[in-house]
Specification:
By secondary structure, this protein is of the alpha/beta class. It has 33 helices and 33 strands. Strand 22, helix 20 and strand 23 form a beta-alpha-beta unit.
Length: about 950
């Protein structure tokens, strides 16, 4: 019988209709026993259910009288037929029933998802915990097609292949809800049974989803496709992350329960964050990412989503019941662990042993975490016996309530795990290289004596046997961390090496290991770069085939520019538009509405050259995709007309690893392969960075304008590695392609703010952040480190002109008649040829700062300046009566340097190292703008500083 007969009416009426028309049809099945499936299930027909509803209504009316204004009744009982019968009986009697929130979800499923469609619902046991084994037992007693399960049941199946096999023989679908599911667990189950994600929230209900079989496969189980008629919107919350909103629509009031709860609201922000499916063909699939409340904002402004690390650590350790990663308004993350009930971690030794046992999985989670969110052994806290983490009814940990409950213990953890204060540069170097066992032994001995007050100490005596307590042990750890410059030195080292001799031997081994570990990390980075370069060489061997056809030359220049909406890209576009020989420009960007985004960026950067002359085409593009992410017709148009590619698009993020730049490197190779498809002689110009060769291992007096293949040249981060790999790819393409196009790259140095336009040098960058923070702390660094003390900065608007000149004037990669192996990419160093020292410019900076404050700005060494910044932010936070996101944001505006402390510390650590010198003679010959360039002038510096402070309320600085 069609379910259409039973839609569009009230549920109590639908039950009566089914009882009249199909009285023997099954409404639901309930276990005969509340605690075991051994006795099977009892089928409840619609005749039985309707009679139960009417009986409940009659009993309520006789006992309480007819309801008035839907008076509220409360009921809590077993998970059986009485719940739905009482709910509908109360409605018929003029009452409403207040149910527990999870009983409410059960009732929604049993009534609204079942009655209109005739779906038979099967209830689990009411007096036993839900489990994967219980599900298998139920399958042996009745027929079940689909299961709506909490994540813990899915986890049970993933961990027991026999249970999973039995379920796969009987079940068609498992739909999970009530919490997130780790990818590793879901993949196991999804390989055997169709697994689906059902999103729901108290304020939204269980959202109706589209469960298409055509546009998804079994690996898409984490993704939901929201029904388009619900009035839901996903709005950009952060980079690649969207927040789910419900937007009121009066035409949809019957399917928008949110606005029954919030009758005055026009929209509701769920605080649930989602990410889009990476495939363009599946752009309407969304995966739950985190609660906005879960995102940790550290004291330096960096953010992290702790969910994946928490899931990984929990799912890989049977000794752990739950973990939380914490660190909001702190400098560093910490791990909060709830051991399983059979694990005793009361004693210090037991805690130390437990940490060692779980640490391999913590390290594995660290490898996938951003640098600023990695966990250390010094920052691990355990729950106390009898004080477990708080749980919601569905079993998930209540983060906020748990952290509030353990607030004092968390504060004590961070106090006792003091991170190392910035010491003088010489002291840091001495401690880093300190492997003198005699000196270490004396440091250990003095740390113990000064902490305990003892006057003497035998070097083989046990500290704790002599009376050292746990607080004194923590104090010793703090002293040794500072004395050894080892913030990772753990309390467990003292507990397990409780004599001067034993602790000294441990420290020596740790220092040696750290030294060897650094060398090992360097070798790992070198190998990763080499492997990636070989991977792309192989890809180009397959994609770039020799082409004997001659390429025609065009007098009219047609440019394809990537990354035109960034600061440098906007200025390059402006310079191209002013260049008379440029006929047309294709701008490839990731934005949907490239033209309007470009107009906004141009206005922000003070650029005024019109975009509406028909000389610019904006195309939405993904360079890593076939046809560069544009249509085939658009691709053919771009390739057939372009005579010059300027590749500027690249993620500037120094916290990312090399592997995180895979998409950009894939895009570079795709762009290079387009040169083979072109019928014209085409030039290719890539914007690289001096970071590709900033390692101090380079020994040449001046680094030449040519490709560098030395293994140890890049700076110490994934961004520098990616630029180095990109240069090697371009050099290989120059040797591989025949006939040879013109391939070149420019190693760009420090890009300063514009001087001929009103656009502001971004305050988020290291130098603006330093100057703004210097006013706040009343001090300016005496040095910028060897890297920046000699200033060869180029204003962004001048640099754009230089790049356009270089790209237009570049020579072929191989001269006619030369062999393929003699081909090389062109290399340029667009740096300011007229340098000026920081000591010279410092005077105008001091003058501008002191004009803005009544206090005198002192000039201090860079390490002391860093220490003052750290002390200032801690003082600002300590003085806040309540630290929250608003007060933290306020502090970061006044002291933006706090976000870049690692960068400044790197400058300070290499303050005495000789700076690399780059050759610029060939670049100078090719650029008239560079030939005319002046050193950074006082008026430029004044303009930049006045723009930074002019855009900020002076009282906030």
């Amino acid at each position: 019988m069609s379910s259409d007969l039973f839609t569009g009416d009230l549920v109590p009426h639908l039950v009566d209709q089914r009882a009249r028309l199909t009285p023997e049809a099954t409404f639901a099945e309930y276990p005969v026993s509340p605690s075991s499936y051994s006795e099977g299930f009892r089928k409840i027909s619609y005749r039985d259910f309707a009679n139960a509803v009417n009986g409940a209504a009659q009993w309520l009316t006789q006992t309480l009288g007819p309801g008035k204004d839907l008076d509220t009744l409360a009921y809590m009982g077993p998970n059986d037929i009485r719940y739905p019968a009482l709910i509908l009986g109360a409605v018929k009697a003029g009452y409403k029933v207040l149910a527990h929130v999870f009983k409410g979800a059960y009732l929604v499923i049993f009534l609204f998802n079942a009655v209109p469609f005739g779906t038979v619902m099967i209830a689990p046991l009411s007096g036993a915990l839900l489990s994967g084994r219980g599900l298998v037992e139920a399958l042996q007693k009745t027929t079940i097609d689909a299961v709506l399960a909490v994540p813990s049941i899915v986890r049970d199946l993933a961990q027991d292949m026999e249970l999973l096999h039995q379920c796969s023989e009987h079940l068609k679908t498992i739909m999970y809800c009530g919490g997130d599911l780790p990818r590793a667990i879901g993949d196991v189950v999804a390989s055997k049974i169709r697994l689906l994600n059902q999103f729901g929230a108290s304020e939204l209900g269980l959202t109706p989803n589209i469960l298409s079989l055509k546009n998804r496969d079994h690996t898409d189980w984490k993704y939901a496709q929201f029904h388009p008629d619900l009035g839901l919107e996903l709005r950009l919350h952060d980079d690649g992350v969207y927040e789910l909103y419900a937007v009121r629509d009066t035409k949809k009031h019957t399917i928008q329960p949110t606005f029954t709860i919030f009758p005055e609201a026009q929209e509701y922000a769920s605080r649930d964050l989602f990410v889009r499916h990476p495939s363009k063909e599946k752009a309407d699939l969304w995966s739950w990412h985190a609660r906005a409340d879960d995102i940790i904002v550290f004291l330096n402004g960096e953010k992290t989503n702790p969910i994946s690390a928490e899931q990984y650590i929990t799912s890989h350790n049977n000794d752990i019941a739950a973990v939380l990663v914490l660190g909001a308004q702190r400098f560093q993350a910490a791990l909060f662990v709830e051991p399983t009930m059979d694990r005793d971690v009361v004693s210090p030794a037991a805690r130390a042993a437990f940490i060692e046992r779980i640490w391999p999985t913590v390290e594995a989670a660290n490898r996938d975490a951003p640098t600023h969110a990695r966990l250390m052994k010094t920052h691990v806290l355990f729950t106390q016996p009898g004080k477990p983490m708080l749980r919601a009814g569905k079993g998930t940990v209540q983060r906020s309530g748990t952290l509030n409950m353990y607030e004092s213990e968390i504060n004590a953890l961070y106090r006792d795990a003091d991170s190392l204060s910035i010491q003088s540069n010489d002291a840091s170097r001495d401690s880093r290289t300190m492997l003198d066992e005699k000196a270490i032994k004396e440091l250990v001995r003095q740390s113990i004596l000064s902490t305990t007050g003892w006057t003497s100490l035998d070097q083989s005596a046990d500290f704790f046997g002599l009376g050292m307590d746990s607080l004194q042990a923590l104090a010793v750890v703090r002293r040794l961390r500072q004395g050894l410059c080892m913030p990772e030195f753990a309390l467990s080292h003292v507990y397990t090496n409780s004599s001067v001799l034993a602790l000294t031997a441990t420290v020596v081994q740790l220092l040696k290991h750290r030294h060897n570990s650094r060398q090992s990390q360097d070798q790992t980075r070198i190998k990763e770069r080499k492997d990636m370069i070989e991977h792309y060489k192989k890809a180009m061997n397959e994609q770039i085939l020799p082409n004997a056809k001659a390429k025609s030359r065009s007098e009219n220049t047609v440019v394809t520019l990537t990354g035109s909406t960034g600061t440098l890209g906007s200025h390059i576009l402006e310079a191209l538009l002013r260049h008379k020989t440029v006929g047309h420009i294709y701008c490839l960007n990731r934005a949907d509405n490239g033209s309007s985004v470009q107009a906004q960026r141009n206005e922000k950067n003070g650029l005024q050259y019109p975009l509406n002359e028909g000389r610019v085409s904006f195309l939405k593009s993904d360079l890593s995709q076939p046809y560069l992410g544009v249509t085939k017709d658009q691709y053919q148009e771009v390739v057939s007309k372009t005579t010059l590619f300027i590749h500027n698009a690249w993620s500037v993020n120094f916290n990312l690893s090399l592997s995180s730049f895979t998409a950009q490197l894939n895009g570079l190779v795709k762009l290079l392969t387009t040169l083979n498809d072109s019928t014209k002689f085409t030039r290719f110009f890539y914007i690289s960075s001096i970071s590709s060769l900033m390692s101090s291992s380079l020994k040449a007096e001046k680094i030449p304008e040519q490709p560098i293949t030395a293994d140890e040249t890049p700076g110490p981060n994934g961004y520098a590695d990616s630029k180095y790999v990109a240069e090697q790819i371009i050099e290989y393409a120059a040797q591989k392609m025949s006939p040879s196009p013109s391939l070149a790259f420019a190693r760009v140095g420090q890009i300063a703010g514009a001087v001929h336009h009103a656009g502001m040098w971004s305050k988020a960058e290291w130098f603006p952040s330093m100057i703004i923070s210097s006013l706040q702390i009343g001090a300016l660094p005496e040095s910028l480190g060897s890297t920046f003390d000699c200033i060869d900065w180029v204003p962004v608007d001048m640099l754009a002109g230089v790049i356009v000149e270089l790209a237009n004037n570049m020579e072929p990669s191989r001269e006619p008649g030369k062999r393929v192996q003699d081909s090389h990419a062109g290399v340029y160093h667009p740096l300011n040829p007229r340098k000026i020292s920081w000591s010279t410019l410092k005077a105008v900076v001091l003058e501008e700062l002191e004009d803005r404050t009544p206090i005198r700005i002192e000039v201090i060494p860079l390490p002391k300046w860093i220490a003052k910044v750290r002390q200032a932010i801690e003082s600002m936070v300590d003085n806040e009566s309540e630290v929250n996101d608003v007060s933290l944001e306020h502090a970061l505006r006044r002291l933006p340097a706090i976000k870049l402390l690692d960068f400044y510390e790197e400058l300070a650590a290499n303050e005495d190292a000789p700076a690399n010198q780059l050759e610029t003679s060939e670049t100078l010959k090719m650029s008239a703008t560079m030939q005319r360039m002046e050193p950074v002038k006082d008026e430029w510096m004044r303009k930049w500083i006045r723009e930074w402070f002019g855009s900020v309320n002076s009282s906030a600085i």
